[in-house]
Amino acid sequence: MKLDVIKLDAGKAGSIELSDDIFGLEPRADILHRVVRWQRAKAQQGTHSVLTKSEVSYSTKKIYRQKGTGGARHGSKKAPIFRHGGVYKGPTPRSHAHDLPKKFRALGLKHALSSKAATGNLVVLEDVAMPEAKTAILAKAAKELGWKRVLIIDGADVNENFARAARNIEGIDILPSMGANVYDILKRDTLVITKAGVEALEARLK
Fold it and tell me: Which of helix, strand or coil describes residue 14?
């Protein structure tokens, strides 16, 4: 598929031929869903924890005599049956991550890129080079281009001046090509990829 290339000042910079194997697939929600679930599960901290019977702070003294009370027999106030007692089989710290084949993860990224291309929310930028890190200049350019919630993917390295200029602008996020992932792509309204980013992604996914 062919797409126009623009400059940061909204001027035209020719066109680029995008690989149909990466940008021209029919997006499948089930594939995207599985990859996003894998990403979010991997990112989950899993630090949830409760105190068990052996960990709560109470006296170990028998709370009342074994016989003659007319009530049930109890030996510890730390039992789960009592208020402030330990929790039985509660959550403990663990990893929520699960396996997902590498080929399937790559397929998910292709479908995420294709979904943006299919909806017309994919923009190819010539480059993000800026002579100086001026937030006001970039904010004005983004407003003129209609970028509100946008993810920008550059090549192997992101231009330092551009990264510094975009740091304080809400709604603009930047990633190098190796950081491109399904969740971040789908979360934003517009996906902007530089020509260097397109080359790096095609090399990565072929």
Answer: strand
Beta bridge partners of 123: 192
The percent of the chain in helix, strand and coil, each rounded to the nearest 5, is 35, 15, 50
For the segment 127-186, what is each residue's pLDDT rounded down to a tens digit? Answer: 888 888 889 999 999 999 989 999 999 988 888 899 999 988 999 999 999 999 999 999
Query: pLDDT tens across 4-49, in order?
Result: 999 888 888 888 999 999 999 999 999 999 999 999 999 999 999 9
Residue 5 has phi, psi (to 5 degrees) of: -105, 135
For the sheet containing 12-17, what is the strand order?
Answer: 12-17, 2-6, 122-125, 190-194, 150-153, 172-175
Q: What CATH number does the domain containing 21 carry?
A: 3.40.1370.10
Note the pTM of the prediction, 2 decimals: 0.82
Same domain, 102 and 201: yes
CA distance 190 to 116: 7
Same-domain pairing of 30 and 115? yes
Q: Note whether 13 and 86 are same-domain residues.
A: no
> 122 with 34, same domain?
yes
The total domain count for the chain is 2
Q: Which two tokens stand for residue 64?
A: 């009342």
